[in-house]
């Protein structure tokens, strides 16, 4: 590209550098420098909400998450609804599942909130296991439940999702809403595309999950949108011992391969 001034063509237009960024032509007329903006405490605070600043926040969340979870023992992530009441049978199931995973030598990781998440954290903690909660900043009030031994709060869903995947040996999905479905299908996609080492995805509660499973089989599989191997990534059960067995066998196979 060339720049013309007073009838003379300049093959090398004037430029201004802003760190690794090069500004040329009319875009180089910036009134302040990075250092000036850093040292000047006056003016609006909008800068803390700009995309470049968010990159640093995102980086910080990854660093904090990796640092906090690096020494967590082999763990299973359990998803489920925050709306499950303590008097609901699914809450009792969550407690029993958390306890069974702890007794099998696994830590549990949940979203750290109330409902099914609290039940799993509680069951694990009461059984002497290691109970982890990865919270998320939401528009409404929802702190970490009191049964979390190690808690990390995140601003960004995608950072939190990375932690769920990276530090888990398996996913178990109790009945849940959009959040549970989001995590379920993200995990299946990552396993299907071999972005992560294969680990089991257990749907716990056939009455709740059977309709979804049947739809995937009758519509998605029959329509040629997934293969038989993809459908086999899902395991439906109502039995806690069966769910733990699937997790243990997959973990042993992974350990033998490494």
Number of strands: 11
Distance between the termini: 54 Å
Largest pleated sheet: 7 strands, parallel
- Total number of helical segments? 9
The coarse silhouette is globular
Supply Rg: 25 Å
Which CATH C-level class of the largest domain is it?
Answer: Alpha Beta
CATH topology of the largest domain: Rossmann fold
Question: From the coordinates shown, what is the CATH architecture of the largest domain?
Answer: 3-Layer(aba) Sandwich
Major β-sheet strand ordering: 8-7-6-5-9-10-11
Mean pLDDT: 86
The helix-and-strand class reads alpha/beta
- Stretches where pLDDT falls below 50 for ≥5 residues? none
* Helical coverage, percent range: 40-55%
Count of spatially separate domains: 2
Give the topology string: H per helix, E per strand. Answer: EEEEHHEHEHEEHEHEHHEH
Question: Could you tell me the strand content as a percent range?
Answer: 15-25%
């Amino acid at each position: 590209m060339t720049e013309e001034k007073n009838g003379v063509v300049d093959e090398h237009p004037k430029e201004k550098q802003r760190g690794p960024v090069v500004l040329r032509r009319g875009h180089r007329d910036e009134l302040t420098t990075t250092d000036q903006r850093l040292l000047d405490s006056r003016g609006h605070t909008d800068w803390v909400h700009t995309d470049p600043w968010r990159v640093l926040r995102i980086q910080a969340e990854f660093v904090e998450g990796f640092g906090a979870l690096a020494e967590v023992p082999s763990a299973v992530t359990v998803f489920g609804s925050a709306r499950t009441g303590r008097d609901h049978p699914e809450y009792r199931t969550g407690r029993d599942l958390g306890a069974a995973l702890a007794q099998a030598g696994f830590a549990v990781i949940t979203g750290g909130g109330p409902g099914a998440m609290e039940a799993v954290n509680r069951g694990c903690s009461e059984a002497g296991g290691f109970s982890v909660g990865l919270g998320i900043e939401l528009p409404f009030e929802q702190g970490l439940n009191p049964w979390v031994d190690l808690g990390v709060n995140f601003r960004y869903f995608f950072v939190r999702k990375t932690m769920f995947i990276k530090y888990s040996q398996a996913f178990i999905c109790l009945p849940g809403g959009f959040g549970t479905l989001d995590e379920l299908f993200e995990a299946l996609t990552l396993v299907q595309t071999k972005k992560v080492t294969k680990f089991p995805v257990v749907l716990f509660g056939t009455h709740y999950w059977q309709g979804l499973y049947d739809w995937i089989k009758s519509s998605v599989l029959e329509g040629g949108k997934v293969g038989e191997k993809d459908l086999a990534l899902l395991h439906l059960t109502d039995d806690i011992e069966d769910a733990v067995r699937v997790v243990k066998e997959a973990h042993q196979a992974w350990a033998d391969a490494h």
